[in-house]
Specification:
The chain has 514 residues and is an alpha+beta fold. 45% of the residues lie in helices and 24% in strands. Strand 16 and strand 17 form a beta hairpin. This is histidine kinase.
């Protein structure tokens, strides 16, 4: 009897412990019989469905289901009893429940079957996932918004992995580089780069991963990209680094600056041309107002004195001479004024075309053949490049430079002239915009040279360092500078008296459309 009491006490204690666990469980626990009638419901389940336990016990469990599950539940149980095949028993799945107020919510339902001595029951564990589904919906909405922003962004957006393989590319980036988005996925990012960046990119990535030294990540800079058709264009690239759970990715934002660079190049050329033009105009105006107008004013002044003081003493022929002189002086004054006004107007230049500078140089040397033979000049040359230019002005440029090199020779030595070119970039990584790439033409001679303190003067109109010793108007080098500036460059020189001079002419390889 004592053992029976202990067993009974243990059984009661165990049942109380089990009830306490069920009553304090966070998830809902519902027990139904084989007909679907609710036998027990813990407080969590009652709270989830918005009922008091006493309101729901004895009701068919389908009261907790929205349609169509509510209407189908009885037949589902009957089918299970008949076939033993259950859709959810022993499996668990996400279903919809209906609260007392009629609202519908999602929950995870797992059902277990228990066979007692005298009956069969089913226990359902209810885990409310409303908050989780709301969070998922919010995350989906956020992802959709981000995706919409990425897909609709004007700027290109590209994501690569640590190896430089493209994982994502938005429509703007694909369109900018002339590809379909699918064509780029899985490709190395260097397919979008011209040389030398294409060959250097992998080593740059390796250098960053090993040393952590940043050249562009988190910094941003102007670079050059290459389209599918091989054409290149400038863009501003900013790259962000993202640490994911298991790996690192890089996202590049591509902003096309083609038009900006074209505008900058046009502005640079306009500014350079305006500065040169203003300086030349000032020089010309000074010469016109002083060197030309001063003697003219004297002619007019003494002519006026003749008219006022000596006119009556002159013969008729003398009076006629004075009148004609004053009229001529007046016409000359008007002519000078008209010339000044004309100098302020730039005539419409011809369009640029592809010009082989080597061919132009050959033609100029041919034109100067007689002078070259008479002076014993020796011309060394290496091939010059093809650029976009105005052919006539290129011819004029070389004609002036070669003529100068021959003319300003030393008396005791035949002229030796060396002509060669260097192709350069104004800035590293930029080659797409007209003006980024230039050629530097060097014209070296062994002539009389000059003191470099006069460097600025020699390119000004009417400036001559050698007085009347050599023929010329002093306008040749000013013309050379004007041509160089118009072609996106400039001209300078290095020299030593008695040693020789090297003229360095910079010309852009390509030009914006005019």
């Amino acid at each position: 009897m004592i053992e029976d009491k202990e067993d009974h006490s243990y059984s009661i204690e165990n049942a109380m412990r089990l009830k306490a666990i069920i009553d304090t469980a966070i998830d809902g626990i519902i027990t139904i019989d084989r007909h679907g009638i609710i036998e027990t419901m813990n407080p969590a389940a009652a709270k989830i469905f918005g009922y008091q336990p006493e309101e729901i016990i004895g009701e068919n469990v389908k009261i907790l289901m929205p349609e169509p599950d509510s209407g189908l539940h009885d037949s589902y149980i009957e089918n299970y009893h008949r076939t033993g095949v259950g859709q959810i028993i022993g499996k668990g799945r996400e279903v919809l429940g209906k609260k007392k107020d009629g609202s519908v919510f999602p929950f995870l339902l797992s059902i277990s079957e228990v066979k007692l001595q005298d009956k069969q029951i089913f226990t359902g564990i209810v885990h409310d996932i409303s908050s989780l589904k709301q969070a998922e919906a919010a995350l989906r909405e956020s992802e959709n918004k981000i995706n919409s922003i990425i897909q609709g962004a004007v700027d290109g957006i590209i994501t690569i992995d640590r190896r430089g393989v493209i994982e994502m590319v938005n429509p703007s980036a694909a369109r900018l580089f002339g590809y379909g988005a699918d064509e780029l996925l899985g490709k190395s990012i260097n397919v979008l780069m011209p040389e030398p960046d294409r060959s250097l990119h992998d080593s740059y990535m390796h250098h960053y991963h090993v040393k952590g030294e940043k050249r562009i990540i988190g910094i941003g800079r102007e670079v050059t990209g290459m389209r599918k058709d091989g054409s290149i264009f400038p863009f501003y690239l900013s790259i962000s680094e993202v640490e994911l759970a298991d790996r690192k990715v890089y996202t590049g934002f591509v902003h096309d600056i083609t038009q900006q660079k074209l505008n900058e190049e046009r502005l640079r050329r306009y500014a350079a041309e305006l500065e040169r033009s203003n300086r030349e105009l000032q020089d010309f105006a000074y010469v016109s107002s002083h060197d030309l107008q001063e003697p003219l004013r004297k002619i007019q002044a003494f002519g006026d004195r003749l008219v006022t003081k000596e006119y009556d003493k002159l013969s008729e022929q003398g009076k006629d001479y004075v009148d004609r002189m004053l009229n001529a002086a007046s016409r000359m004054q008007n002519l000078i004024n008209d010339l000044l006004n004309f100098s302020r107007v730039t005539s419409r230049p011809k369009s640029f075309v592809k010009v082989n500078l080597d061919t132009v140089l050959t033609e100029v040397i041919s034109d100067l053949e007689v002078t070259i033979e008479q002076t014993g000049a020796v011309i060394h040359r290496t091939p010059l490049p093809e650029i976009e230019a105005e052919p006539t002005q290129m011819r004029q440029l070389f004609q002036n430079l070669l003529s100068n090199a021959i003319k300003f020779r030393r008396e005791d030595e035949s002229p030796v002239i060396n002509i060669y070119a260097k192709n350069l970039r104004r800035k590293a990584h930029l080659t797409a915009t007209p003006g980024d790439e230039v050629t530097e033409i060097h014209v070296e001679d062994n002539g009389i040279g000059f003191d470099e303190k006069y460097l600025d003067r020699i390119f000004n109109i009417f400036q001559r360092l050698e007085g009347q010793k050599y023929e010329g108007s002093g306008i040749g080098l000013a013309v050379c500078r004007k041509i160089a500036v118009r072609h996106g460059g400039d001209i300078t020189a290095t020299s030593q008296p008695g040693v020789g001079t090297t003229f360095i002419i910079t010309l852009a390889m390509k030009h914006p459309e005019e």
